[in-house]
Write a structure and sequence with these properties.
two-stranded antiparallel sheet, elongated, 5 strands, about 65% helix, three-stranded antiparallel beta sheet, about 120 residues
Amino acid sequence: MYKVIKAFPGSPDGMRVINFKEGDPFEETGDLLAVAIANNWVEETDDEEAKAAEEAKAAEEAKAAEEAKAAEEAKAAEEAKAAEEAAFKKSGLTQEEWQSLADADREKRIKAASKSK
C-alpha cells in the first residue's frame, strides 16, 4: 500500500485525470505507480497507517455530508418560514386570527393521524 506525499495529477488509464491529494491512499499500479515512485510523489506505508488514513478521510467526508445536510435543512426551514410570513401578510388577518387558523389546522391533522392508526 502507498500514500500520496505530494499532490499530483495522474492518469491511470490515459483517459481520465485524477488529482491525487497529499495523505490520500494510493492504490494504482503499473506505469502510474512507477512514475509516482520515481518522482517521490508516493511512499510505501504499512497497513495500519493506510487504514488510519482511509478512516480519517471517510470521517471527513461524513462530516462534510452532515454539514451539507444541516445547511440544506436550515435553508428549507428558512424558506418555509418566509412562505408562511408571505401567506400571513397576503391573508389580511390579524396575528390572533392567523394563529387560531394554525391551531385549528394542527388539531385537524392530529385527529386525521390518530384515525389512520
